[in-house]
């Protein structure tokens, strides 16, 4: 089994345990998320799967993503507009986002988790989660940039 096949079979188990019906479309959305790992929008997923499911709409994709989010298999990254990205990496991690092409790359920085306990001590809040995003230019876009000059 490849890594993504293992991830998929684990995710299917989670679906079964939550009593969520596994439709062919739901399976395909999950499979796409787990094999690409590239934080797609609902529209990206729709475009990738429309050939396989001609009757599927963007609304169906959203619906499936909502179900997957509710049982904790997918995280939604909202940006204050319609372009939510969906992330099936539900472990603690951060995002590096390319200003030019919009690519999102995961990275880990475990020591940042200390921020939560420090913030709780300072503010008296009970922290539920935190989110960190860094912006810049990915390697591909840097190459394009140097070619231009
Ligand atoms: Zn880029
Ligand atoms: Zn991510």
UniProtKB/TrEMBL annotation:
InterPro entries: FUR (IPR002481), Fur_C (IPR043135), WH-like_DNA-bd_sf (IPR036388), WH_DNA-bd_sf (IPR036390)
Keyword Aminoacyl-tRNA synthetase recorded: no
Regions crossing the membrane: none
Keywords of this entry: DNA-binding, Repressor, Transcription, Transcription regulation, Zinc
The keyword Glycoprotein appears for this protein: no
Residue stretches in coiled coil: none
Family as reported in the entry's similarity comment: Belongs to the Fur family.
PANTHER family in the cross-refs: PEROXIDE-RESPONSIVE REPRESSOR PERR, ZINC UPTAKE REGULATION PROTEIN
Protein name (record): Peroxide-responsive transcriptional repressor PerR
Organism field: Virgibacillus tibetensis
